Amino acid sequence: MGLGRSRAFLMMASTIIYPHMTAFDAAHPVPFYAIGTPGQAWGPLEIELWRSRQRRQRSHRQDVLRVIDRLRDRFEVQDYGEVVYADERYPLQAVRVGDWRSDRPAVLVTGGVHGYETSGVHGALHFLEHLAQAYAGPLRLLVVPCVSPWAYERIHRWNFHAVDPNRSFRLPSPAAEAAALMELVEPLDGQFVAHIDLHETTDTDESEFRPAKAARDGEPFVPGTIPDGFYLVDAQPAFQRAIIDAVAQVTHIAEADAQGALIGSPQVDRGVIRYPLREWGLCGSVSSARYTTTTEVYPDSPRTTPQACVRAQVVAVCAALDFVLAQD
User: Measuring CA to CA, how many Å separate 181 from each of 97, 109, 140, 209?
Assistant: First the structure.
């Protein structure tokens, strides 16, 4: 079948399944996603087809739970729920550091809300293994290294139901992962002075996840750009600046584009943008903490390494905690 006939056939198909992320030519630059019909939101059949393409590529039990188990002689490990998808069950675990019977300032650290953002998960675990003990005296820490274990194993943004947990921190929540974290945090509302949520911005955001979202929602895909470097999301200028200054010692900070923006949002300070956290249902809104930040590491940069990305997350957590301590 020639190119012209093939194109015509695909354009007439009622359900279009293209080779993954293919653009036809320069005159048709916006790629169609591999699943769905342009302009029509996915139904159960498309979601099932999408799910059938997700392959388990790593082990939450080996990479995360095994590390947490090693911490039980130093910290309290809390089982705060379980997500069950088909015949798979994933324990949800948090680690408490410090004396939670005291009134010392409490800080929440979350990783793996998007399971494919690896350095957030491993940054939280590295912090727990090697540095958390130093903060156990003056602070109380609640660390949740991997909020979304199903997505972690499949290196994906969404959960089993093609729902983004980081747009689901609202009631009622459409994501079990977000609902479980909200239930964990709710009894502690008012106790957290800070929340650090560890994320990445990757090239696959533009090549896979944003096109998939557009297809899922029946919307056109509008290409964007990916910043090269580390940046933060939220307000509180002094808090964000302290983190940026610390992370700049271990990796490069993203620079604004020609429009003065990072990933389509105006830069409000060096390496800092703002999102409407609660309106979008983001994890950063899960607590009423005075100081909140969402880290964004760029692991696909030729100027960094996986190890440097984990180190940037750890440095961000420590800088946030040091800032909190300096306020007393």
Answer: 17, 12, 18, 23
Mean pLDDT of 73-90: 98
Output the six-digit token pair for 207.
């090549």
Q: Domains in the chain, start-ordered, CATH in brackets?
A: 3-51 (no CATH), 59-326 (3.40.630.10)
Predicted confidence (pLDDT) per residue in 86-98, tens digit: 999 999 999 999 9
Span 243-272, average pLDDT: 97
pTM of the entire predicted model? 0.90
> Cβ neighbours of residue 228 under 8 Å, at least 6 residues apart?
252, 254, 255, 298, 301, 303
Sequence length of the chain is: 328
Radius of gyration of the chain from its Cα atoms, rounded to whole angstroms:
21
Compute the distance between CA of residue 161 and CA of residue 308 in angstroms, rounded to an integer: 32
Helices (H), the chain: 3-12, 44-52, 60, 66-69, 118-130, 149-154, 176-185, 203-204, 210-217, 237-247, 277-280, 306-326
Query: What is the CB neighbour count within 10 angstroms for residue 315?
Result: 22
Share of the chain above pLDDT 70, in %: 90
264 contact partners, CB below 8 Å, separation of at least 6 = 224, 225
CA distances from 6 to 10, 14, 108, 141 (A): 6, 14, 53, 58
What is the average per-residue pLDDT within 15-19?
32
Question: Does residue 233 contact residue 294 with C-beta atoms inside 8 Å?
Answer: yes
Q: What is the DSSP letter of 28?
A: B
How many helices (H) and strands (E) the chain has is answered by: 12, 10
User: Hey, what are 222's tokens?
Assistant: 């509008």
Q: Considering the chain, what percentage of its residues have pLDDT values greater than 90?
A: 88
Say which range, 32-41, 121-130, 289-298, has the weakest mean pLDDT: 32-41
- Output the CA–CA distances (angstroms, integers) from residue 250 to 33, 199, 234, 247, in the order listed: 36, 17, 21, 5
Phi first, then psi: give them for residue 119, nearest 5 degrees: -65, -25
Query: Is residue 119 within 8 Å of 297, Cβ to Cβ?
Result: yes
Q: How many Å is the maximal CA-CA distance in the chain? A: 73
